[in-house]
Structures are given as C-alpha cells and as structure tokens.
Specification:
Layout: E1 2-3, E2 6-7, H1 15-18, E3 26-37, E4 40-51, E5 58-59, H2 66-73, E6 83-91, E7 94-95, H3 103-109, E8 110-113, H4 125-135, H5 141-154, H6 158-161, H7 174-187, E9 192-195
Parallel strand pairs: 8-9
Antiparallel strand pairs: 1-5, 2-9, 3-4, 3-6, 6-7
Helix pairs in contact: 4-5, 4-7, 5-7
C-alpha cells in the first residue's frame, strides 16, 4: 500500500511558487503537522523533508493516515467538513498554509491522483487530458494535441485509445480510467505529483 509524492517543474504563478526550493534543496518540508477530522486527531506531529526530484513512498496499514497526509500537502484535507490542520508545510521554502496563499494555486502546482479513478463524466478521453491545460489558458490546437498525446504515452494508454479520443472517458475500463487520470495529472506538468495508491485499480502488468 503505497502513496508516492513525485517531484519536478519550474514555471510559477504566485509569490509562493516563484521562490527557489528550500534549504538544502528540499522541495517539501513538513514541520510539526497535525490534522483532525472533527475531534479525531489523525496525524500527530509529523516531520518529513523531501528533496527536489525525489520519489518518496509512504507505506503503512489501512487507516494509518497516508491519504490524510498527502491531502494535507496540497490543501485538500481542509475541504472535508470539520477537518483542520496545524503546523507547517513548506513548498519551495514557503508555508502553503500562510494567510496570503491561494489554495487553488497550490493545487495547480501540487497535483494529485486518487485511489479510485475519477474521469470527468461528460468529457471525452481527449478533453479529460486537456481540461487542465484549457483552464490554464492554452487554446492552440497543435499544442494541445501534442501534450495530450505525450501525456497518454507517459501513462501507457496512447496505443489503446489513440483511435477513440472522442469517446467518453467513462467508457474505458477501470484500469484504463486510472491511467487516464494519471495522464490528466501529468498534462499540466505539476511540480509535485501526489499519488494515493494509484495502481490499486490496475493489473500487475499495467502497475
């Protein structure tokens, strides 16, 4: 059971993202992180440092807090009713929980692939991959085509869907939908990619 934050990228939108990595090349620094669901104290005083370009696996039994931890890294934990966080999560040396930080910008730079595939139900395979690019203002068809193809190839899905790009993403098998979601996350080139047991819906070869 693995959860793996993967790291990389350069372009930046906000002040928190324009600074270089933190001390000694750390991309993510978690300091005294605590999280709750209502009165339930889930994470207690977590301290982790993850370097630039590192691949890190978080391993533990079901219910130990792996998903909660990575959701705290891109500020998704706070979306849950009654959820709250204390401590600091530094991204490029800046605290993502600072009062002046826009969580939407954080989630653009720290992407996430969930355990269960969640393709956008009303979109084609192509539009699922291109959705984030279009939201970021990319309209050039040739550029979109190139990035969609590259992302699907990185997710090892291109050969299976290249002739069906206009079909709904929800018509794919569960394993293909998961790889589609991975391609969608890769398309926007996040600096950090969080993956919550991303191979749980895949067969051993696809994994």
């Amino acid at each position: 059971m693995k959860t793996a934050p993967v790291l990389r990228r350069e372009e930046a939108d906000t002040n928190i993202l324009k600074t270089p990595s933190g001390a000694e090349g750390y991309k993510i620094e978690i300091e005294n992180l605590n999280s709750w669901f209502g009165s339930k104290h889930v994470l207690k005083n977590i301290n982790i440092k993850i370097k630039e370009k590192a691949v890190t696996a978080i391993i533990g039994p079901s219910g130990c807090g792996k998903t909660t931890l990575i959701r705290c890294i891109n500020r998704m934990h706070e979306i849950s009713p009654g959820a709250r966080v204390s401590g600091r999560v530094l991204f490029n040396g800046k605290n993502i929980y600072g009062e002046d930080v826009d969580p939407v910008q954080i989630r653009r730079k720290i992407g996430m692939v969930f355990q269960k595939p969640n393709p956008f139900p009303m979109m084609s395979i192509y539009d699922n991959v291109a959705a984030g690019l279009k939201l970021n203002g990319i309209r050039d068809k040739k550029k979109l085509d190139s990035i969609v193809e590259r992302s699907l190839k990185l997710a090892h899905l291109w050969d299976e869907v290249k002739d069906d790009l206009n079909k709904p993403g929800t018509r794919l098998s569960g394993g293909q939908q998961q790889r589609l979601c991975i391609a969608r996350a890769l398309a926007v080139e996040p600096e950090v990619l969080l993956m919550d047991e991303p191979t749980s819906a895949l067969d051993p070869i696809a994994a």
